[in-house]
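go over this record:
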Amino acid sequence: MSHPPLQPGWIDRPHLSMSLGDFPTEMGGCIRDAFVSYVIHGDLQSGRPVVLCPSAIASTHHRLDFLIGKGMALDPSHCTVIAVDALGNGLSVSPSNSQSQPRDQFPFISVRDMVNSQSQLLDLLGVGQVHAVVGASMGGMQALQWAVSEPQRVQHVVAMTPMARTTTWARLMNETSRRVLQAHPGWRDDDPQAWSAWVPLMQMINSRTPDHWDAQYQEISDLLNDMDARVTTWQKQQYSVWDWLCQTHAYDAHDVGTTPGHDTTASALARICAPTLILAPPLDLYNPAESAHWAAQHIPNCKFIEIPSRWGHQSASFADTQSVYFLGQHIYAFLWEK
């Protein structure tokens, strides 16, 4: 897809792309003519610490824009932020934009493939160590994978609403979402109407909490109007069903414990060297908060902070303005205050 329309709070930066050539995947396939999309906040030639921000599922390099800016946790005046698009998101090489392997011809990818593509990007940009990898949701999962895959390269990890191993619950949500999309007769041709039921399922039910919605609306008509508005907004993003299928299958298969050289999820986490900050809300109906707690307990030098929010999975996003301030404060202190 082309870059989606800018949303409130997004930072407009030059959109860059790096060719990776033929990219071998973890499962033995090969993405032909692979490329990674990214933006840079700050000056890569300045010598300032580099912070890598992977994108979440079905999102772009704008995912953590709420943390980036003057006086914020990721201030481009004292660090250089590389915000990268994960493989399969429609901006980096994906089923929807691959010329040689479109749609169902695109090979299966993993979260480790996403991390490996980012590692190659940093190599090509001449970046060695990174001060931090910061991510939310699937971005947080990539951040933990970075710490396992390249422990000597990553100096700090910040993972919001992550899982070290995808739970059965999250897989159930993803499988339901795929069936919802594929029940629409026009899904193969990316008919925008295919998203009509997906939006309330994935953006409202599993991304919020019952308390949030009870406090938000008393009248069903107001809720339905909100739902319709969200569907319209999402359809304008022109996101591809094929990319959602691709990324959710990668999501489902993720486990840092299957990284080469490791035996279990717990043992992989135990060998993380970087100081780590994990943040999660009390209730998350996509990536269960219990998974974030569990990961934090198995990482040697890890601090866990509960996000005081009723926004569930979306507590680590633009959506909850109070969480934006809370997250900014704690992430800034973790990364920069000694």
